[in-house]
Structure formats: C-alpha cells, structure tokens
Design goal:
It catalyses: 2 a phenolic donor + H2O2 = 2 a phenolic radical donor + 2 H2O. Pfam families: peroxidase (PF00141). InterPro entries: Haem_peroxidase, Haem_peroxidase_sf, Peroxidase_pln, Peroxidases_AS, Peroxidases_heam-ligand_BS, Secretory_peroxidase. The protein is mainly α. The protein has a two-stranded antiparallel ribbon. Strands 3-4 form a two-stranded antiparallel sheet. Strand 1 and strand 2 form a beta hairpin. Helix 2 runs antiparallel to helix 4, helix 2 crosses helix 5 and helix 3 packs across helix 6. The longest helix is centred in the first third of the chain and has 22 residues. The radius of gyration is 22 Å and the shape is globular. 41% of the residues are buried.
Length: 345
C-alpha cells in the first residue's frame, strides 16, 4: 500500500511538472529546502531556456549589436535600465510598464523621467523573442540579458547569468523615488540604499564602475559646479581643470539636458579608467567622487585597487551584477511572462 502511495505521488508530481512546462516553457522544479513547507524551490539558473528557447541570448545579442553600433551610448542606457529595475521591487521588469488604468509608471519618477532610455531596444528584443518562442522569455530576463550583453559589447566582462525571472503585474512610483540612489548622494546614503537591497560596500564600488560607460545630464552634476554645500561654491574635491571643462558644458542657468561623459577618457569602452579618474578628482557625479573622498576606508581602498587592477574590477563587477540580478525575483507561480513589456497581460 505504501509503495502504491509513493508511486501515485510521483505520477502526480510528474503530471504537474509537465503541465507547468507546457504553460511556461522553461519552467523547472528545483528540489530543496528553500520552498517553504511544500519542499519546492524555484531558483534562477543559467540553463532555464535551454530547451524552451535555446536561441534567446543570440536573439538578444543580434539586436544589441545593431543598436550599440548605431549609438554606443545605448549600452550604458540598457545597463542602467536593469539597475533601476532591480532597486525598486526587485528584478521584475516593473520599470518597463507604461501608465495605464491600473499602473502608475515608474518612468515618471525623479531618477527616471526624461532620463531613462533604451525602451525601444527592449521592445525590439521582445518582439523577436515572441516570434521565435511565444510567451516564454520574460521581460525581466531580457533586461538582465541586455545588461550583460551591453557590458560585453563595450569590452567588459562576461558572466554566467542565472535566468527564470518572471514579470511583475505592478509598479511602484513611490519606491522608485526613494530607493534609487540620487547623483548627489553622500557615501553614507549610498551605503544605506545598497544595503537595503542586500548589497555591501564591495558591490557598491564595483557596480558604480558601470559608470565607465555612458553620459550624464548637466542637471545631475550642476550642484557640484556652483553650489555644492549651499555656499555658492564648487565642490572642492573637483580637479580645477576638469571643473572649468564642465562649466563650459553645464552653465549655471539653463542647459540642464546638456550631457557629459561619466568617463571622459573612453566613454564607450568598458574599462577601469573610471576609478583612475576618481583618484584624480575627475569623477563626474558627487556619488562617484565620494567613493574616494567620503572618509570610508573600505570604499577608498577598493577604488585604488580597481584603478590598479582592471581584471580584479571585471571579476567583481560580474559577481556583483549576478548578486544584483538576484534581488527578489518573481519565480514559479508568481507574476507572469508579458507578451508586451510595456503592459500587463
């Protein structure tokens, strides 16, 4: 009788697994103690689409190659999209949702409005994946794949990327306004906001190194040039020559949308120059420079080490990107796989 019960249980489990695989190809059961009292655990793993959409990464890369060749800055924009997604509700593609009857879009938050870019590239990737593997690859995984691909295509590190995220049916404008570190952050504020996501000071410095590519708007560093401490004086940690260069791009009045490279030495190349510039007082944003001047030994030493050793930075950046990509993902029965990344199904 006991043998019959065990056999019946296995048949039920196999049937359930098969049903879920049909409903969401790529869905997988994991065995282990992390799934609560049921004993099921749903975790991210690199081979998630091995059978349901083996060409997923190739499709992502083909779109990225064209987009980044056309506009090298797009690589940084897509990397930033993943970051701004994960810091709000976890890595669930909530940042991609447009306003609707039920959604107040995160695109309208202070850190995102008139600033976040790359949505059309994500749309193109999603459309091609829907053609090849309908309702299979989530928008949250597309953001993670696009961030990795953009890093690689800019000359940065590659990494094994855990997959299997599902898409949120909600967004949070409020959390987007409070959880994403502003460009004028103090070091303590940065540490606190990263810690809130389970990320430590090593992750903070390594992930800030993503600023080795891309541009920032004048409005994000204007305070440093004209009124850093409320005394109508520039930030004293700014290199003087760099300060005068920035003033020519970013006037005291107007010009808020003028842009300047975060790493002026090689703005489209993913390397460790960002950290060298910080050592020389040539970090663009307050949140860049405070990693070295913010009187915390840990971040200061890490800036020095990454400036000296690019391979050390690359290795830690990859590890920290995986860690960030694992922030509160929706897996298993949670969320959905959107057909269109801009709206809930």
């Amino acid at each position: 009788m006991e043998l019959f019960k065990v056999t019946l249980s296995l048949i039920v489990i196999a049937s359930l697994s098969a049903t879920l695989s049909l409903a969401h190809p790529g869905f997988n059961f994991g065995w282990g103690g992390h799934g609560g009292s049921s004993g099921w655990s749903f975790s991210l793993f690199p081979e998630f689409y091995q059978f349901s959409c083996p060409q997923a990464n190739d499709i992502v890369m083909s779109v990225l190659e064209r987009a980044i060749a056309n506009e090298p800055r797009m690589a940084a924009s897509l990397l930033r999209l993943h970051f701004h997604d994960c810091f709000v509700q976890g890595c669930d593609a909530s940042v991609l949702l447009d306003d609707s009857a039920t959604i107040v879009s995160e695109k309208n938050s202070g850190p995102n409005k008139n600033s976040l870019r790359g949505f059309e590239v994500i749309d193109e990737i999603k459309a091609k994946l829907e053609e090849a593997c309908p309702q299979t690859v989530s928008c949250a995984d597309i953001l993670a794949l696009a961030a990795r691909g953009s890093t690689v295509l800019s000359g940065g590190p590659n990494w094994e990327l855990p997959l299997g995220r599902r898409d949120s049916k909600t967004a949070s404008l409020t959390t987007s306004n409070t959880n994403i570190p502003p460009p004028n952050s103090t070091l303590q504020n940065l540490v606190t906001l990263f810690k809130r996501q389970g990320l430590d000071e090593v992750d903070l410095v390594a992930l800030s190194g993503g600023h080795t590519i891309g541009m920032a708007r004048c409005v994000t560093f204007k305070q440093r040039l004209y009124n850093q401490n409320g005394n109508n004086q520039p930030d004293q940690t700014l290199d003087k020559g760099y300060y005068y260069n920035l003033k020519s791009v970013c006037p005291k009045s107007g010009g808020d949308n003028n842009i300047s490279p975060l790493d002026f030495a090689a703005p489209a190349k993913f390397d460790n120059t960002y950290f060298k510039l910080i050592l020389w007082g040539k970090g663009l944003l307050t949140s860049d420079e405070v990693l070295f001047t913010g009187s915390a030994g840990t971040t200061m030493q890490l800036v020095k080490r990454y400036a000296e050793d690019e391979s050390l930075f690359f290795d830690q950046f990859a590890k920290s990107m995986v860690k960030m990509g694992n922030i509160s993902p929706l897996t298993g029965f949670k969320g959905e796989v959107r057909k269109n990344c801009r709206r809930v199904d």
